[in-house]
Amino acid sequence: MIEFRKANTKSNFEVIAQLADTIWREHYIPIVGKPQIDYMLDKYQSTEAIASQVQDGYEYFMIHYNSNTVGYISIKKEEAALFLSKIYVLSSYRGKKIGKSAMFFIEEKANAYHLNSIRLTVNINNINSIKAYEKLGFINVGPLVTDIGSGFVMDDYEMIKKL
Ligand SMILES: CC(C)(COP(=O)(O)OP(=O)(O)OC[C@H]1O[C@@H](n2cnc3c(N)ncnc32)[C@H](O)[C@@H]1OP(=O)(O)O)[C@@H](O)C(=O)NCCC(=O)NCCS
């Protein structure tokens, strides 16, 4: 059984920061290298960074699968779309339609906000996730390079799903 629980306490943010540390190191070090991941985890996925994003309107949800916390999502309501900022599932739980269930949940949120599209960014070399997003109905609308400071850039594609 899959459940999505809103993260709104410091201990929830700690759980998410721990998941991010595990998933990002395993998944992204081969793609962008350790220095960039050390920098990005500290800047975007520390307990304090998550708390600050929540203050700024980001909503975080923990994904529970048969009572285990196996991943997390972050979304933000924008003017024209729902921004899917983060969706991460532990590697041992991938391919079990958890991402697909999460996408239904996110679509419900977009509908509740009267938004008719979801947008996300994904690293251009994150091939498996790009394939999953395509299966889930997203279309690649082109490259998006973002300078994140300290000499690092995020080399992404932007993908959009119309609802
Ligand atoms: C991307 C991610 C969230 C997807 O979650 P998941 O639970 O593994 O995905 P699901 O099992 O729900 O699969 C969703 C759909 O994508 C397809 N899919 C998943 N991985 C795929 C792959 N590597 N190649 C092709 N299709 C794939 C599935 O077949 C399914 O489509 P279907 O229902 O038509 O068969 C998860 O794999 C993940 O956390 N990846 C690593 C972290 C990451 O890169 N996150 C995204 C950052 S932008």
Describe how the helices and strands are arranged.
Blueprint: E1 2-6, H1 10-32, H2 34-44, H3 47-55, E2 58-65, E3 68-77, E4 82-89, H4 98-112, E5 117-123, H5 127-135, E6 139-149, E7 152-162
Helix pairs in contact: 1-2, 1-3
The structure holds coenzyme A.
Residues 27, 87-89, 94-100, 122, 126, 128-129, 131-132, 135-136 line the site of coenzyme A.
Q: Any overview of this molecule?
A:
By secondary structure, the chain is of the alpha+beta class. It has a single domain (2-162), classed as Aminopeptidase (3-Layer(aba) Sandwich). The chain contains five helices and seven strands, in the order βαααβββαβαββ. The protein has helices at 10-32, 34-44, 47-55, 98-112, 127-135; strands spanning 2-6, 58-65, 68-77, 82-89, 117-123, 139-149, 152-162. It has a seven-stranded mixed β-sheet, with helices on both faces. Helix 1 runs antiparallel to helix 2 (34-44). The longest helix is centred in the N-terminal third of the chain and has 23 residues, at 10-32. The two termini are 25 Å apart. The model has no long low-confidence stretch (mean pLDDT 98). The structure holds coenzyme A (COA). Coenzyme A is lined by residues 27, 87-89, 94-100, 122, 126, 128-129, 131-132, 135-136.
